[in-house]
Design goal:
Strand content: 15-25%
Number of strands: 10
Mean pLDDT: 97
Distance between the termini: 38 Å
Low-confidence stretches: none
Structural class: alpha/beta
């Protein structure tokens, strides 16, 4: 580990205008190599992003129960964390660097949670499948923050809210998951959206528009469809993280609001 003074860390990221926060419904890993309405919209959104000093992704595919980790390796290996897909998907590359000092700056914001630096993790498909379109040629460090899968959602919201100030130091945050993620019910051969998927997605969207955090951090106690739409909340948690990073009164704009494969919500948003 390099030696950094407090001044080094304080100066690592310069003051900036408020950077956007996004939540991206990433869906099928094949989106990494697909040209479809979802990926074209990701590219359009990416073209409109301001110049950042770092990109930090909170992915549904890095779960560390009881802990919160932050990547700090100098380069980011690609993790192919899936099986049964075409060989082409396993040949995808995404060349990006990490930054130990940026990781340490982030960790300082999460001192109360004893966030740990992690050189072993790379970029999982929740990150690189999206960034291939959003930021295809990254010229700033890319880091991931893990999800404590044992932490209750209200506490998770509070944890990530500690990072809001980093949006004024050049950091773009991206939560990557899916609001509705009932993979076991997916219609792989086509077919429309299930009624319960549409209902849960619409109700969650309304709560997002209203910034009704109490509902969003208690989906199972709020919406009857939650048990089927969110059988496990690993993909829902990045949305909670993204909402926690919004400033009070900040608006969001939805994009990719369709349901894919009947039971996967691709609904995404960006702060405006």
């Amino acid at each position: 580990m390099a030696s950094y003074t407090m001044t080094d860390l304080d100066n690592r990221l310069e003051a900036s205008a408020l950077m956007p926060v996004l939540f991206v419904g990433h869906g099928n890993p094949m989106n990494a190599i697909s040209d479809n309405s979802f990926t074209r919209t990701w590219a359009e959104v990416g073209e409109g992003l301001p110049a950042a000093q770092a990109i930090v992704v909170i992915s549904a595919h890095w779960l560390t129960p009881g802990h919160t980790h932050i990547t700090d390796a100098p380069t980011n290996p690609i993790i192919y964390d899936f099986g049964g897909f075409p060989d082409e998907l396993y040949r995808v590359t995404y060349d990006s660097v990490g930054d130990e000092a940026v990781a340490m700056v982030l960790a300082r914001q999460l001192t109360d949670y004893e966030a740990e630096l992690d050189k072993q993790w790379g970029l999982d498909h929740g990150t690189w499948s999206v960034l291939k379109h959003l930021a295809p040629h990254p010229d700033v460090p890319v880091l991931q923050i893990s999800i404590d899968y044992a932490m209750p959602l209200p506490k998770l919201y509070e944890l990530y809210s500690r990072l809001r100030s980093m949006r004024r130091r050049g950091v773009v945050f991206i939560g990557s998951g899916n609001i509705v993620h009932a993979l076991g019910r997916a219609r792989w051969d086509g077919g429309g959206a299930f009624d319960w998927a549409e209902k849960f997605d619409a109700d969650t969207a309304a709560a997002l528009r209203d910034r009704d955090v109490a509902k969003l951090v208690d989906p199972y106690g709020t919406w009857a469809e939650a048990r089927i739409a969110v059988p496990t909340d690993d993909h829902y948690r990045p949305m909670v993280a993204a909402v926690s990073l919004l400033d009070d009164g900040e608006d969001i704009r939805f994009f990719n609001s369709a349901i894919d494969m009947g039971s996967i919500s691709m609904r995404s948003f960006i702060s405006v």
